[in-house]
Amino acid sequence: MLTDERFALILDCVKHQDIVKIQELVERTGASESTIRRDLTELENKKFIKRVHGGARLLKGKLQEASVPEKSSKSLHEKKKIAQFAASKVEKGDCIFIDAGTTTQQMIGYLPHTEIVVVTNGLMHVEELLERGIKTYLIGGAVKPRTNAMVGRGALESMKAYRFDKAFMGTNGVHPEFGYTTPDPEEAQVKELAISLTREVFMLADDSKIGEIAFASFGKIQDAFLIVNELEEETVSVYQKLTTVKVVGS
Amino acid sequence: MLTDERFALILDCVKHQDIVKIQELVERTGASESTIRRDLTELENKKFIKRVHGGARLLKGKLQEASVPEKSSKSLHEKKKIAQFAASKVEKGDCIFIDAGTTTQQMIGYLPHTEIVVVTNGLMHVEELLERGIKTYLIGGAVKPRTNAMVGRGALESMKAYRFDKAFMGTNGVHPEFGYTTPDPEEAQVKELAISLTREVFMLADDSKIGEIAFASFGKIQDAFLIVNELEEETVSVYQKLTTVKVVGS
DNA sequence: TCAAAAACGATCAAAAACATTCAAATATGT
DNA sequence: ACATATTTGAATGTTTTTGATCGTTTTTGA
């Protein structure tokens, strides 16, 4: 049996059974255990399957990616500083938009008032907002599995019914020329619309995002008040020519 | 049996039975008690289940927990029977609406296909739907704190963009004359609109709702296929004059 | 309340699965 | 045909998983 034949057979097994034992593969291919192991190792490197003790498993978010409670505590602390400053900008009676994402989520705990109205596209924010007794609106649309953000036509339509005093946005890239960028074009659409509906936009970005460019752009640097945790003097001045910048320090 | 196979089996048991004994798992997996204990410990650490003396329990997300104060396991079992039958009505390729509520939530675990599109107004449903890899749309609007249901103008507007093959609704009252009723007028609006956008409506009601009348009406008996857990012969015939009734028995 | 029964966590040795190495078999290129 | 590269399977020692045991804690029922 050829190598590629074995590969096909293995992938077929995994696809149909979700999980397959090495012994079963040995039996079905007639190859030795060593060979199967080598095959599995290679298929794992090529990101086709996930090896587990005793066999291999389908590589999918089915059971694996469900829980994401892990955070690097360093970057979390940075995010908290940024979030805290951003939250201080919220005034009683404001109608604000809070973008989906982990940095913006941190804001919720620091919000200085509960007499505000919050609109968000981040499913994960809702629980904490309600817990604090804040009037919460969620925009509609398709739910993006990995990030639990609302995207798509429904999200855009649904958001057009609102106007915001302030918006707090996350971003994956901040660049003087290319502006604010994010990897997902659908999320970019939502962000772009949110910005256009808002009087005063705040962009929350930790230092790892500065100078980066992701795939989809959703705004120019001057569209938002930029909040970062740390930044060299010279870099700050570049951005300060374009917009207001606040370095919260770490 | 591989570790991951056991994990899948355990999670499956917990999801369908809410609670599972160690002995049952030993029996079903063929593994030793020690191994099952280790598995449960690990699954608890990964936040998939909650260990209890003698077994393990479903770990509900806080969003779900909030709205489900405490349910007698009897009525939960009834709900499951109803949900199971309702789920069997879903066919591959369907676009369905699933109403907010605990009974409809039970359906998700029993859905026979994942090649469907689900629209819901129930925030608590989203997590489980995505976990099963189902394409999920959430309608927009205000989030109702106690039930985590989407209501209000935004919800209505946002739903109008969809049409459904089937809808699965919960209700607080079922009455021959007054039809289906619920205490909250805002939720009633949403339900009413959902029904009007759907070809085939299923109403899920346990026996405690039969003959009851709540404040706000959202449909006549004949608007939906009625699914109940148990019902006296004579009562059944009353409703059967008006619509199709399925008694799933307990 | 108390004692028996059940469930528990910790420990340890056996078993299974593992990566690595090496030589034989096979394929490839000149 | 020859030398070289690749693939294969067996043998090696190592790591992970497993099931049994034991003393402790929790639950149960009188």
TrEMBL record, chains A, B:
Alphabetized SMART domains for the sequence: DeoRC, HTH_DEOR
Gene3D superfamilies in UniProt: 3.40.50.1360, Winged helix-like DNA-binding domain superfamily/Winged helix DNA-binding domain
HTH deoR-type domain span: 3-58
Stored InterPro entries: Carb_Metab_HTH_regulators, DeoR-like_C, DeoR_HTH, NagB/RpiA_transferase-like, Tscrpt_reg_HTH_DeoR_CS, WH-like_DNA-bd_sf, WH_DNA-bd_sf
Keywords (A to Z) from UniProt: DNA-binding, Transcription, Transcription regulation
GO molecular function: DNA binding; DNA-binding transcription factor activity
PANTHER family with a match to the protein in the record: HTH-TYPE TRANSCRIPTIONAL REGULATOR SRLR-RELATED, TRANSCRIPTIONAL REGULATOR, DEOR FAMILY
The protein, known as: DeoR family transcriptional regulator
